Amino acid sequence: MKKKVNQVNISSDYLYPVFDPTQFPGTVNKMVTKIKSFQKKHKIDAIAFTGTSGSAVAYPLSYKLKIPLICIRKEKTNHTHYKYEGRYNASTYIIVDDFISTGATIKKIKKQVREISRQSKLIGIFLYNASMFDPGHSYKDFNTTIYCV
């Protein structure tokens, strides 16, 4: 008897590493490896994220690395009146997302985290869809290192 193979139909180009069940575990595991290596030199108190592209990897990363989350809500599309939820007293945090195009999402997360806690410091940005990263832009204003997975 032949085994039935499920075909994966995905309607998102940039979120393919998240929605493709054959790629997702590898994407998460690569990020875990990269962040664990980073943790050897830096203390991480929280993982900050926003939107579908951030949350898709933030939750499994939090679980596997035992690092609390800071969820930055998108305006007008959330189910609560809170702008953010999660760890309020993180002294250091990283951001996880898919890629950087204009830098607006990273700036928004930094601004919202600063509202939560003035002493919080962004110490790294981890991107899981490095193929979408735009190397032509300068992101020096983030004052942190960007890690492509």
The total domain count is: 1
Model regions low in confidence, pLDDT < 50 over at least 5 residues: none
What CATH architecture would you give? 3-Layer(aba) Sandwich
Write the element-wise H/E pattern from the N-terminal end onward.
HHEHEEEHEE
- What is the percentage of strand-forming residues? 15-25%
- The radius of gyration is 16 Å
Shape label: globular
Structural class: alpha/beta
Q: Please report the first level of CATH classification, the CATH class.
A: Alpha Beta
Counting DSSP H or I runs of 4 or more residues, the number of helices is 4
Gap from first CA to last CA: 40 Å
Q: Helicity level, as a percent range? A: 25-40%
How many runs of DSSP E, i.e. beta strands?
6
Q: Remind me, CATH topology?
A: Rossmann fold
User: Biggest β-sheet, characterized?
Assistant: 6 strands, mixed
Mean pLDDT score: 80
